[in-house]
Amino acid sequence: MRVLxxxxxxxxxxxxxxxxxxxxxxxxxxxxxxxxxxLAIGEGSKESIRSxxxxxxxxxxxxxxxxxxxxxxxxxxxxxxxxxxDDYNVIKEQATTLSYITPVVNGGGQVISGSNNWPxxxxxVNPDYLDIKVVGLxxxxxFTNIEVQSASKVALIGQTxxxxxxxxxxxPVGQMIRFDNIxxxxxxxxxxxxxxxxxxxxxxxxxxxxxxxxxxxxxxDYLNQIMAxxxxxxxxxxxxxxxxxILRSQHKLMDSEDDDFSVRSMEELxxxxxxxxxxxxxxxxxxxxxxxxxxGIGIMNxxxxxxxxxxxxxxxxxxxxxxxxxxxxxxxxxxILISVTGGxxxxxxxxxxxxxxxxxxxxxxxxxxxxxVISFAVCAVTGIFFGWxxxxxxxxxxxxxxxxxx
Amino acid sequence: xxxxxxKIEDLKREFTMGTETVHALRGISFxxxxxxFVTIMGSSGSGKSTMLNILGCLDQPTSGVYEIDGxxxxxxxxxxxxxxxxxxxxxxxxxxxxxxxxxxxxxVELPLLYNSKVTSEERRERAVKALExxxxxxxxxxxxxxxxxxxxxxxxxxxxxxxxxxxxxxDEATGNLDTRTSYEIMSLFQELNKKGITITFVTHExxxxxxxxxxxxxxxxxxxxxYKNHSVQSAADELAKLPKQDD
Lengths: 406, 247
Fold this sequence. Notes:
The structure holds two protein chains of two kinds. By secondary structure, chain A is an alpha+beta fold. Chain A has two domains: 2-51 and 272-404, no CATH class; 100-232, no CATH class. Chain A has helices at 2-16, 18-55, 85-94, 129-133, 145-149, 159-165, 210-218, 236-250, 266-309, 311-319, 324-361, 369-395, 399-404; strands at 60-65, 98-113, 116-125, 137-140, 154-157, 176-179, 182-190, 205-209, 225-230, 261-265. In chain A, helix 1 packs across helix 11, helix 3 (85-94) crosses helix 8 (236-250) and helix 9 packs parallel to helix 12. The radius of gyration of chain A is 33 Å and the shape is elongated. Chain B has a domain at 35-52 and 88-241: Rossmann fold (3-Layer(aba) Sandwich). The longest helix of chain B has 16 residues, at 179-194. The radius of gyration of chain B is 18 Å and the shape is globular. The A-B interface holds A 1-2, 5, 8-9, 12, 16, 312-313, 315-326, 399-400, 403 and B 53, 56, 58-59, 78-79, 82-83, 85-87, 91, 93, 97, 99, 101-102, 106, 110-111, 113-116, 159, 163.
């Protein structure tokens, strides 16, 4: 009842000072709107990275030779020869958390068909590869385990290779190509995947049985990496631990020795790349928060002026029976009303800005509910925090002095 | 014997100004009964304003007794004083002190906003009744800027009546008004007083005192005179005697 009356009084005061209130709100509006828009941009880029990586197979686990020196400038593990087919066999036998696993050997070379040639990369794998990378076929079929065992010269090619080596639009399936002078029969074309987040063309590949690539093209007996797939995304961390344990005992590493290989799940890769965009988000939000803070100071400033200006009114209210708490509440409610209304308008403006950014600047955005809730809550707190001091000052006025104030 | 509304015994109020102690009131005793119309007179520096502040429960005495409607004010907290002001006193100020850009009825409702026992319907009802009592029943939604000085003071009087106080406390209530309007307002006070409302009127104008039933004259913080006025003049009659206005 009493609070309702005070709410009425505060609303009235705000309505009587429309322009001033609106100008005061502007700081909060801009602050909230920019927090929401900035977070939407940050979330959007994070999500786009995540979705690209997920498209590469979110359960995927990669095992590379060489110690794990994580960082953006990691050297190629391919030069280290500590990963062997035995490792692959042991993991395949012992790991319970993996659904698919394939050895990977790869190397660059020229793809030639007739008079056309194209530099590409050949990946030697087993049939599990398609399931691990979550990639389908446009046409033809995958090679079989028997073809792997017999090191058959069969290959699947990606769309980029098709476009460059078979520019006339003929069906590549059944055609012969040469990769570094080794003839392969094309038995399938991989589904188009486009570029990944890192700008790498995922369709510029040739896939062949690893035995064939190992023996005939690279002439090596080690593996460049092992790719596997955890049963589910949730199993991925467990799978990483399991594989690490298996490989440590397989490589007969002492407790004091570091791993001579690295096992990574996609989740880790995601977090590595997300951390960059997270940094950016934090920076953006920090800037936006400062404008919210300035908005708050604006409220404090105007409330302070308002208290001064209405000293006589405060005196009168006290004379007719308003308690200190009533005056405090009146001004506090006024400050909160300004900040919350400003917050509400800010949310609307922020969402509008997000739609604009998405449609006209073509940046990926994603509005997280938490960003709305948080910035709105911050607004209310701002109102209380910055409204408190002036309100407190008003309530502590001596009614006699206040009444005489001119 | 009618009920004692105000009881003051050996009331003192001292202010400390730096190292000096100023004795604003030096031991005052008097009482006001229900239905009285008392003017408190005195020149500036007589302790009149201090008396008013204490009577209005805006200030507390340094020593002595002050009881309003049987409640001793001396040791009450700020909040308790606010409640007394809200329920027992109706204030009228020299400069009206109405809320700007706020309608007459909302101005009158103000004291009741701070009384949670009064519902919003009752509040409106009582405000309308109070405005009708002061003859502004047709100007409920006018804002102060749309009203004349006399009308503004009437709104202020309605505001002081709305909480059914035990006493109306007026501070130079006619000080900002011309003679004609002053008499109009005084005649309104007399009317209200006839209805049984206790009025304490603080003023320095001697002719105002002739309309009251009793006058207390303060000088240097002490009561110099306290006399019953045996020939109370009617403000309405005085008003009639004034030369007719040209307009």
